[in-house]
Design a protein that fits this description.
With 281 residues, the protein is mainly β. 6% of the residues lie in helices and 28% in strands. The chain is globular, with a radius of gyration of 20 Å.
């Protein structure tokens, strides 16, 4: 494969784990990567439930045992199809991914294991409904741990709510209980047009399984890709829900991100919660 003046070998690094693809690329910088079974959101063809939630919980009410086709029922051990596609979009070294597209197969009835009379699998990718492009949400994130912690909760002016990636998957007939922190997440603020931004304020909830990030990278959309903000200065406040600030030289953009690294990836601690995220000029 030729990229400009450079010739590279296309290697298929097929994996299915929580390890960081960025760490793999750092180790093998001249390798292009390909994913298999990179997302696992449960969904049902023709069922359109709860579009207001970024991540719904399973509804066990009879007659509503169909996870929605909105790609918003995300299992605890993986990510949504949207996140998988965003990950590919933002990484030039990605060659693509093989989409797990099984539908209506008998057996492994995730997420309704041992719930009579369900017996079909819902773990699949489904065709999205085509229509007019929707505006970017005011806040976004790679992953939300539950239906009660969507990214928009960071911008609702309610300190009792917030976004979190804290997730726990109970044991089933097929799988043991699982709770582990992702190595990296990002949260973002989006606007309909470009605006000047020179700082962000984030209120991190700490205690128990929730921690401050090990490190944070602040980036903004330059019209083609996310790039680091210039001259970033971080003031941490360890008190739970107190404001930590991220100041930088002013940029003009329509999107900004905080890229968060967990202090204990893969463990039952090291999760994040942000009760409020705001931008200042």
């Amino acid at each position: 494969m030729t990229r400009g003046r450079r010739t590279a070998v296309l290697c298929a690094a097929v994996y299915n784990s929580a390890k960081s693809i960025d760490a793999l690329h750092a180790k093998y910088p001249n390798t292009f990567f390909f994913e298999s079974e990179s997302a696992s959101a449960t969904s049902a063809r023709g069922a359109y439930q709860d579009p207001q939630w970024g991540n719904t919980a399973q509804d066990y009410t009879p007659g509503r045992r169909e996870p929605s086709s909105y790609d918003n029922n995300i299992v605890g051990w993986a990510s949504s199809g949207e996140h998988a596609l965003k990950k590919d979009r933002d990484r030039e070294y990605f060659a693509g991914q093989f989409i797990w597209s099984g539908q209506d197969c008998i057996g492994e009835p995730t997420p309704y294991n041992n719930v009579f009379p369900v017996k079909t699998s819902y773990s699949s990718h489904v065709t999205a409904t085509l229509g007019a492009a929707s505006p970017a949400p005011p806040a976004d994130a790679t992953f939300s741990g539950s239906a009660t912690t969507p990214p928009e909760a960071m911008t609702d002016d309610d300190p009792a709510t917030g976004w979190s990636n804290l997730a726990s998957k109970g044991a089933s007939l097929q799988f043991p209980a699982m709770t582990h922190a992702h190595e990296r997440e990002w949260v973002a603020l989006n606007w309909s047009g470009r605006r000047s931004v020179s700082s962000l304020t984030a209120r991190f909830t700490t205690g128990g399984a929730l921690s401050l990030p090990q490190s944070v990278r602040v980036t903004y959309w330059d019209g083609a890709q996310y790039v680091p903000v210039p001259d970033v200065r971080i003031t941490w406040v360890a008190t739970s829900d107190a404001p930590s600030t991220f100041s930088f030289s002013e940029v003009e953009t329509s999107r900004v991100r905080l890229e968060l690294t967990s202090p204990t990836p893969g463990a039952t601690t090291g999760f994040f919660r942000i009760s409020e995220l705001t931008a200042q000029t």
